[in-house]
Amino acid sequence: MNRREFLTTTVAAGTTGSVASTAVAGERKTVKILGISCSPRKGKTTAAALAICLEAAQAVPGVTTELIELAGRKIGVYDPADPKASQGGFADLIPVLSDPNVGGIIVGTPIYMGNLTSLCKAFLDHCIVFRREKFALAGKVGGVVAVGAGRNGGQETALHSVQASLLCQGMIVVGDGQPTSHFGATLVNDGKDSIASDEPGLATARNLGRHVAQVALQLAATRK
Question: 155-168 vs 118-126: helix axis angle to the nearest 10?
């Protein structure tokens, strides 16, 4: 191959690569990230923490978000003998959670007696339905946020409890990402139903939301 032929081939290859890159950019996947507030009190600190997570997630191009609060849905204790009898408002969430466009789910819980709420446990137990539907949540990214009355009030214990259930669904569980990069988002309620002054905790919430979104997008890009 002479110099002219080499240059012609190289330019052609570069043009093809450029077109391919443009096509990939044009076909960029979009994903939805859900925030599930497992507090029995609507619109309080757990919902606020999730809103911070989702705001950071939505700042990632290609991501949409939705906050769902379980307060008032009357989700009862899971009964394996008759699961539907105690589903309450959980039944309406089944198609929402299993939607293929949902790439990530962030579960939020306040801390009651050093761990997750009974509402959160009921929600996670009712998610058994997804295991029985060919693991409908498998491959989705999972993250957890916990809000307690003290810095060491049980937040990490709750994170691990929720993460255990998400792992049983075949979900890809992530922490809060860099630069904090621990188990998830942990925040403190100042006693006046506010997390606004907890800057270290807010940082973990932002990092978690961004990390879940980024990993969900990366996974979506690998799927047809």
Answer: 10
- Has residue 2 been placed in a domain? no
pTM: 0.87
Residue 148 within any structural domain of the chain: yes
Domain CATH for 158: 3.40.50.360
Euclidean distance between CA atoms 21 and 37, whole angstroms? 39
Contact 151, 187 (CB under 8 A): no
Our count of domains for the chain comes to 1
Which tens digit of pLDDT belongs to each residue from 184-204?
A: 999 999 999 999 999 999 999
Which backbone phi and psi does 66 adopt, to 5 degrees?
Answer: -150, 135
Closest CA to 155 of 173, 169, 175: 175
Domain membership of residue 181 (yes or no) is yes
Q: Can you give the residue range of the structural domain that contains 35?
A: 29-221
SS3 106: strand
Q: What is the pLDDT of residues 138-183, one digit of tens each?
A: 999 999 999 999 999 999 999 999 999 999 999 999 999 999 889 9
